């Protein structure tokens, strides 16, 4: 609109302009996100073999329907880590095996929910590219990813071709504030951590390459704007850290929010909740109440179908198109914690459960097959404070396996160690997220409970000194304890992932938590002179630093996952043809009956006068040792124990 302004009529013209702006129509647009579903399609706990109120896309579907009904205009996006994570995912990939032309059960469910677009997560690559493409072909909505390229082998970045469609711009018709229909061009661009090249090296080497998230955004976002995108929604399968930007960053969302042209961010990967996570809200430029990062609305709605992310944008006219004038974000939960109890906030959408009923029932039958028998209970209640039977079984199985595969090779005769970690030890999974297998028959579902990831077994060759450094990095699991203070002190560092607390069997050692941690969670030495690992013994003698060992582990750890010293792929000497979980299952079958008792190869040196506390499952009260005193339940439903 053009105004003629007579001389001396400036105030009058300004009034007309402001009146016209006030009357300009706007569009309210709701953007909804799911992420990190990890094949929790139905509200069922496959490891416990029981219905669950706390997980499931079928429960999120109910939230989606309600959120859609509240507004005139909405879109729905998924941010990956969809195809792997529960026995249902393994059953489709490895049990009955998905065939070309069949629809993956994830998309049988999601095709009923009117998704606009999806992004791939890092776990999408766990079963290989062929399986991934078979699966995605069943989606009736497009997938985007901008930083994975075909590996053409010519070392010329200028001619690299995207492996997926890097972005999409969709014309959507919305209703404006005056009730008129308007066309808006919405652009979606997806990203995945470049670390997929390490984590799934065997599946991806010489097939694809992955590039930096921020550099990729700077390449494509201007292109999207030039092609007319009114709104650009970034979908990074990447968490948020406020550390200085480094090329190849895994958790790059904080820096992605600084990229010009991006209007909203739907992120994931690190299984946190935003807005809502107090630690994230403390970052500079983050508004935890409004749910914005450097002014851009953003959501990360938990994991396993725990939450729905909701962003509400206000669009206003801009030239021949539209632009984002304002926005805010929130998350909506399917359940809440009340002490030990999970209280459902919504019911499951029956149509979603029905859509995958055949595969769900097939998974249950698959998981209930007997593979062995245990003479005692197996649980991970105390895996962070003492040697643990759930880890012991995995390490026993891995040593058994490697002893067999090195026979007749140049590695025969080298001592064999094994590293494993507690995958289910509470944390963000809640007070029920522990391995808990009662004595008696062990079924395949219990093997998945012991080893929840479809990792491939790898063997690395290290010196004794390097093995000790591995343990030093794992000992970052613990806070430093003041042995002279009688005030309560928390032993476990809650920010340190339990799956990075590796226990190495085949040697014995002690951990001195009165010393500061030598490494931080990024694998950097932060206390050069600190040493928590002491009394390291092999075959009854002090471990010699220069002696060589084979160590059984998994492809994630051996390839650099977790930022451990000397583990970057270069020390791998055996690429085993089997998955760690299959190794455990075959070990149980070979033993028929097992005694799962831990061998006590590690312990703490002592705490002095300290009052040391740790949290675990409430059910642990029944299994606690004499050196553990139950205190109370905390606000999240965990049992607090004092460790004597």
UniProtKB/TrEMBL annotation:
Q: What is its main location?
A: other
Q: Which InterPro entries match?
A: 5'-Nucleotdase_C (IPR008334), 5'-Nucleotdase_C_sf (IPR036907), 5'-Nucleotdase_CS (IPR006146), 5_nucleotidase/apyrase (IPR006179), Calcineurin-like_PHP (IPR004843), CpdB_N (IPR041827), Metallo-depent_PP-like (IPR029052)
* SUPFAM superfamilies associated with the record: 5'-nucleotidase (syn. UDP-sugar hydrolase), C-terminal domain (SSF55816), Metallo-dependent phosphatases (SSF56300)
| Every Calcineurin-like phosphoesterase domain range | 29-272
Q: Which Pfam families match?
A: 5_nucleotid_C, Metallophos
Query: Which PROSITE patterns would you find in this protein's record?
Result: 5_NUCLEOTIDASE_2
Q: Which residues form the 5'-Nucleotidase C-terminal domain?
A: 381-567
As given in the record, the signal peptide range reads 1-24
PANTHER family per the UniProt record, alphabetical: 2',3'-CYCLIC-NUCLEOTIDE 2'-PHOSPHODIESTERASE_3'-NUCLEOTIDASE (PTHR11575:SF6), 5'-NUCLEOTIDASE-RELATED (PTHR11575)
Name of the protein described by the UniProt record: Bifunctional 2',3'-cyclic-nucleotide 2'-phosphodiesterase/3'-nucleotidase
Which species does the entry assign this protein to? Answer: Marinomonas rhodophyticola
């Amino acid at each position: 609109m053009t105004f003629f302004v007579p001389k001396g009529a400036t105030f009058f013209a300004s009034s007309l302009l402001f009146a016209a702006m006030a009357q300009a129509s706007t569009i309210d647009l709701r953007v909804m996100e799911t992420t990190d579903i990890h094949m929790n399609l139905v509200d069922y706990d496959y490891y416990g073999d029981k219905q669950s109120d706390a997980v499931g896309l079928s429960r999120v579907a109910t939230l989606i329907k309600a959120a859609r009904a509240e507004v005139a205009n909405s879109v729905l996006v998924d941010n990956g880590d969809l195809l792997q994570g529960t026995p249902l995912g393994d059953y489709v990939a490895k049990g009955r095996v998905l065939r070309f032309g069949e629809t993956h059960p994830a998309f049988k469910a999601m095709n009923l929910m009117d998704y606009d677009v999806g992004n791939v997560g890092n776990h999408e690559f766990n079963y290989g590219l062929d399986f991934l493409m078979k699966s995605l072909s069943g989606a009736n909505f497009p997938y985007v990813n901008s930083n994975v390229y075909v590996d053409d082998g010519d070392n010329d970045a200028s001619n690299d071709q995207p492996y997926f469609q890097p972005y999409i711009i969709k014309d959507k018709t919305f209703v404006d504030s005056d009730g008129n229909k308007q066309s808006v061009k919405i652009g979606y661009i997806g990203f995945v951590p470049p670390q997929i090249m390490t984590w799934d090296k065997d599946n991806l080497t010489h097939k694809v390459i992955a590039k930096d998230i921020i550099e990729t955004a700077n390449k494509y976002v201007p292109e999207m704007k030039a092609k007319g995108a009114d709104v650009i929604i970034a979908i990074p399968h990447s968490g948020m850290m406020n550390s200085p930007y480094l090329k190849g960053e895994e958790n790059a969302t904080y820096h992605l929010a600084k990229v010009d042209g991006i209007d909203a961010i739907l992120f994931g990967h690190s299984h946190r909740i935003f807005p809502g996570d107090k630690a994230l809200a403390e970052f500079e430029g983050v508004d935890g109440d409004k749910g914005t990062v450097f002014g851009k609305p953003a959501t990360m709605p938990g994991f396993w179908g725990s939450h729905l992310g909701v962003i509400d944008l206000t669009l206003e006219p801009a030239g021949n198109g539209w632009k984002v004038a304002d926005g805010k974000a929130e998350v909506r939960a399917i359940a809440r914690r009340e002490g030990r109890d999970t209280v459902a906030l919504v019911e499951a959408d029956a149509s979603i459960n029905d859509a995958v009923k055949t595969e769900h029932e097939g998974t249950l039958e698959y998981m209930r097959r007997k593979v062995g028998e245990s003479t005692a209970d197996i649980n991970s209640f105390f895996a962070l404070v003492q040697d643990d039977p759930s880890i012991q079984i995995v390490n026993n199985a891995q040593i058994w396996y490697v002893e067999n595969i090195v026979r007749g090779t140049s590695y025969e005769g080298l001592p064999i160690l094994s590293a494993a970690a507690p995958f289910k030890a509470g944390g963000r999974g809640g007070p029920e997220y522990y391995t808990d297998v009662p004595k008696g028959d062990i079924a395949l579902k219990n093997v998945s409970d012991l080893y929840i990831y479809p990792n491939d077994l790898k063997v690395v060759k290290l010196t004794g000194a390097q093995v000790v450094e591995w343990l030093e990095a794992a000992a970052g699991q613990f806070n430093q304890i003041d042995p002279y203070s009688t005030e309560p002190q928390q032993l476990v560092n809650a920010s340190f992932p339990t799956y990075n607390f590796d226990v190495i069997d085949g040697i014995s050692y002690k951990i001195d938590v009165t010393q500061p941690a030598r490494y931080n969670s990024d694998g950097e030495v932060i206390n050069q002179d600190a040493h928590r690992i002491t009394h390291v013994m092999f075959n009854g003698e002090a471990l010699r630093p220069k002696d060589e060992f084979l160590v059984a582990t998994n492809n994630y750890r051996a390839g650099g996952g977790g930022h451990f010293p000397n583990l970057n792929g270069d020390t791998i000497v055996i690429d085993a043809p089997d998955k760690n979980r299959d190794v455990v299952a075959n070990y149980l079958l070979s033993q028929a009956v097992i005694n799962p008792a831990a061998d006590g190869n590690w312990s703490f040196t002592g705490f002095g006068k300290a009052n040391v506390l740790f949290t675990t499952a409430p059910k642990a009260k029944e299994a606690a040792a004499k050196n553990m005193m139950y205190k109370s339940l905390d606000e999240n439903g965990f049992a607090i124990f004092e460790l004597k």
